[in-house]
Structure formats: structure tokens, C-alpha cells
Amino acid sequence: MAHLIDGKTLAAEYKAKAAAAAAALREKGVAPRLAVIIVGENPASKTYVAGKARDCAECGILSDVLALPETTGEAELLSRIAALNADAAVHGVLVQLPLPAHIDESRVIRAIAPEKDVDGFTPVNVGRMVLGEPCFLPCTPAGCIEMLRSTGQPLEGKDAVVVGRSNIVGKPMALLLTARNATVTLCHSRTENLREKCAAADILVAAVGKAGFITADMVKPGAVVIDVGINRGADGKLCGDVDFAAASEKAAYITPVPGGVGLMTRAMLMQNTVRAARLQSGL
Ligand code: GUN
Predict the structure, then answer these.
(1) pLDDT per residue over 240-271, tens digit each?
(2) Same fold, 29-113 and 139-262
(3) How far is the CA of 220 from the centre of ligand 1 (A)?
(4) Residue 190 pLDDT more than 90?
(5) Any residues with Cβ below 6 Å from ligand 1, and which?
(6) Which residues have C-beta within 8 Å of that of residue 76, sequence separation ≥ 6?
(7) Which CATH number, 3.40.50.2000, 3.40.50.300, 3.40.50.720, 3.40.720.10, labels domain 139-262?
């Protein structure tokens, strides 16, 4: 039976560190502040944004949620971002994705000042990450790396398989694992022999977005399994991409959903925001 990688406990530790760092900054006259923009009524996005605001309150970080209507034009959104970029009291600017179809997501992300890009989504931060330079790491893969670190299992020389090649999870996850000397295979919807590739992985990261996609026969005995998925199962309950009950019979370590990666994503955002405030204030 696998050990559970407990996102709740781990996220609480990282948030406590962010809270201590935020308090130290406040003592020096800097109040860390995050601005979150959400466009439209996507229910999942609204839940995520509410969670981020709650975390900020818990960590002593000021937060402003700018909820804009679905009909907001791209020019209006860009001008809001420009105003936040120019506001010295705001240290982090985050635009919740996805955006409505009439808005060009990549143009919007590019508009965020790299020093306020606490999601690590701008081309400048992505480029720095690829080069291994100091940057804001995207929160979900950064959280996954911390969860792997918490197991005490080495990454160096291990075979890691990442399933899903999104810009915000799969691609950066592959880079971060490579930087830690794992040998990475980045799989996706066109991958041949996916089952065999997964079944050979010492570290398996599932970021597919399909409930129960990773079945027990795709898990190597003794593997570390990180489940990034947040889906609704047929029973209406939250579940990941991994068939948790069956996979936990084979894995050595596994993350639950809920109570796993999602909480760590939010904790990493708090860390990035405090770091942005520190860097911008020159402390
Ligand atoms: N949508 C899903 N995940 C994320 C995230 O980490 N950041 C933003 N901005 N939008 C998202």
C-alpha cells in the first residue's frame, strides 16, 4: 500500500513560510499584494480564484480580485493589466485561465510585467526557466517538485514519465525534472505505447484532465505517482487522472485528489507573491 503524499500538511508548511516572510516584509513597510483578474463565469475558475484569495488572507498577503464580465474586450483587459503593472503597491498580477474565446490568451499573458508574473507564464519567465536562470516557476509543476522532494526519494537518474504537454503543467514539469537529473519522457495524446511507457516509470506525473485515465497496469510497482488532474467522476465527486484505489496498491508514494497537488499549487503562488514583493522592494 502506497504512502500518501499529504498535500494538506505540506501546503500548510509552505504557506506558514510564506506568511512568516510576508510578516517580515510588512515590518519593513512593504505589504505584499496580489491582483487576480478573472473574466467571465467559469465555475471552476471562480472556485480557484476564491481559494487564492483565501490563501492570501491566511498568509497576510493583500489581494484584489478583479471580476470582469464575459463580454470584456481584449483592449480593456490589456489596459487593466497595464494599470496593475504600473501600480507600485501591487507585486503580483495573475490572469486566471482559460479566458473567453474572443480574447487572445497569449497576447494577454505577454502583457504582464515579468517581475509581477507570479504564475511564471510569460515568455520571459518561461525562457529563464528553460535556461535554468532565476525566475518565477509555474506554481503547479513547482508544487509537484516539492511533493516529490517530500518523499525523500532521489530523482537523479530515475525514469520519469509526464503525461500531458500543456504549457502550464506538462512542458514545465518535464523541464524541472530534467533539471533535477531525471530522464524524462513527455507523453501526450498521440504517444504510441503509452501504457508500456508509463509502466516503466519510476516517477509518473499525470496531467491529462481525464478521470481514471491512469489505470493500475500503467503503474510500476514502487513508483512515485503525482496526480495533477482535477476532474468530476461519474459519481459527481472530485477525482484525479489516476485510478487512486487501484494505483495505490502498486505505487510506493501517491498524491490524493482532493488534498494533493491543487493545494500545493496555491501554496507556491503565495511563495511567488512574497518573493515578487521582496524583489520589487529591493529588500
Ligand atoms: N487555470 C488553471 N490553472 C491555472 C493557474 O495555475 N494559473 C492561472 N492563471 N490560471 C489557471
Answers:
(1) 999 999 999 999 999 999 999 999 999 999 99
(2) yes
(3) 30
(4) yes
(5) 94-97, 119, 139-140, 168, 265
(6) 68
(7) 3.40.50.720
